[in-house]
Amino acid sequence: MMVDPVFDMVFRFAASLLLASAAWHKLQAPYDFRRALAGYKILPGSFERPLVVVIPVLEGVIALGLIVAPLTAVWGVYAAICLWLLYAAAIFANLLRGRTEIECGCGGLSSDQHIHKGLVMRNLVLVALLALTLDGTFSRDLVWLDGFAILFGTVMLLVLYITADTLMRNHATFQHEARS
Amino acid sequence: MIDALIISNIFAWLVIIAMGLALYALTRQIGLLHERMGPVGALTVAKGLKAGDKLPHLHLKSLTGGDIATGHVAGRSTLFFFLSPDCPVCKSLLPVITSVAARERDWLNIVLASDGEDVASHQRYISEQGLKNFPYVLSSELGLSIGVSKLPYAALVDEKSQMIAHGLTNTREHIESLFEAKRHGHASIQSFLAGEQRRA
Question: If interface means Cβ-Cβ distance under 8 Å, which residues of chain B face chain A?
């Protein structure tokens, strides 16, 4: 499905900022991230040390790729989709194993929390929104008003993201308390 | 230009819908929080006056001027708040007392009560904490007859000077619970639950 260039840019910019903030957070607190990574118990321990650096760097590169040039943007979108699907799968696998006590290690705009199924949904929504941009855009001349729409739209999407994230986290906490 | 307007309008509507949904989710979570934090009871120690007992007749002099006579039909309910200048939790509850006094002024008098010989320290406390508008009495007899054991303690008596409920009050919720007791006619959460069981 073709989308308007404004939607294309808003989705890509928001995704880029999301990844950049997550990468920054992971580089700032490598020990926390390593603990979270170990908590997932998916990879052998020897992979953890390099991944603590590789994952945030990868996120940073994808964040750049999403916004730099039209050519890299497509690859950036694919890469971001793969990464988010991978995260969703890792979280889902641990939820199936009943290990809801582990840290998400998400970082960035979504502050630290235990994993819950809302996080899987969140990643799927992110993937769906980014996938909208894959079929290219209508061609039309952008005017100054589009600049505002892109700027405020990006900010608004991020704010909505934080809101939804916090709401789901509270919901998970309530349910956790009700169970215990 | 018209394209840009259409697009920004569509986008704005989508955002408004998303915000509406977020608002709805928020209200639901607030509702859930209310359920979680149901009324808590003030901790009643099983001694002293029972609900319905009359306060003893006492004539007390207020440090802020005037006299307080307990045990008479007053026409208004009274909340006795027992405190002490050297009790930090009492101090943290003073703003609550002030706001309760303002909110319930139609039917409620508030009397601050303490004991001890050192009148000067109480006077200092009154001026430091701005308690000049409340009657402030010193009487260990009042506290002993109600059954005050620990501070901060509060006791609510009705217009006929009969005890409604009293207990240790560490938080605003504890003080509010005394009003809940008046509203529902149960002196404690235990008596409320016992009544529920009888009905069931």
Answer: 1, 3-5, 7-8, 11, 15, 18-19, 22, 25-26, 29, 32, 36
Among chain B residues, the shortest Cα distance to A143 is held by: B1
pLDDT digits (tens, 9 = 90+) for B14-70: 999 999 999 988 888 888 887 776 656 666 666 777 777 777 787 877 878 777 777
Residues from chain B that touch A157, judged by Cβ atoms under 8 A, are 15
**Ordered alpha helix ranges (H), B72-188:** 88-103, 119-129, 140-146, 172-184
ipTM: 0.73
DSSP A113-180: -B--HHHHHHHHHHHHHHHGGGG-B------HHHHHHHHHHHHHHHHHHHHHHHHHHHHHHHHHHHH-
Pick from B4, B7, B22: CB nearest A167: B22
pLDDT digits (tens, 9 = 90+) for A74-102: 889 999 999 999 999 999 999 999 888 88
